[in-house]
Design goal:
Blueprint lengths: L8 E4 L2 E7 L5 E7 L4 E5 L6 H14 L4 E6 L6 E6 L5 E5 L6 H16 L10
């Protein structure tokens, strides 16, 4: 994949959005903080590159109308956060599980801060 910097990624304020191709030929985005840590990933895989990019752009511009929550991981042995649209569709999830609810909540708040910093940037993903 190639993008704004020739490597399938673009700068978006203090974060980068990287689009990856999985083993099944589907695309997913991941948001990477300035320190290199993956902050969030797409909640769903997409059939095409453009659809994945559009989904991140929709998240970037419309996250203020979405609701987030901290919940147990599917295995029940940790915490994760999920951001959902008004109709309940998940759009973004934490990139990892957390041992403590409070740490997960703090990570969610950092994600929102970083995502808010991308509002005025064009071309959030390649």
């Amino acid at each position: 994949m190639t993008g704004a910097d020739g490597a399938g990624r673009a700068e978006a304020g203090r974060v980068r959005c990287r689009i990856d191709l999985d083993g099944d030929g589907r695309y997913g985005w991941r948001m990477i903080a300035q320190n290199g840590r993956v902050v969030a990933v797409s909640a769903h895989a997409f059939q095409d590159y453009g659809g994945c990019r559009d989904a991140f752009e929709e998240l970037r511009t419309g996250f203020g109308q979405q609701a987030g929550a901290v919940q147990h991981t599917p295995s029940g042995n940790g915490w994760m956060w999920v951001l959902r649209t008004a109709d309940g569709r998940a759009t973004a999830v934490s990139a990892r599980a957390y041992e403590r609810h409070s740490t997960c909540r703090t990570a969610y708040e950092r994600f929102l801060t970083l995502l808010g910093g991308t509002r005025d940037v064009t071309g959030s993903c390649p």
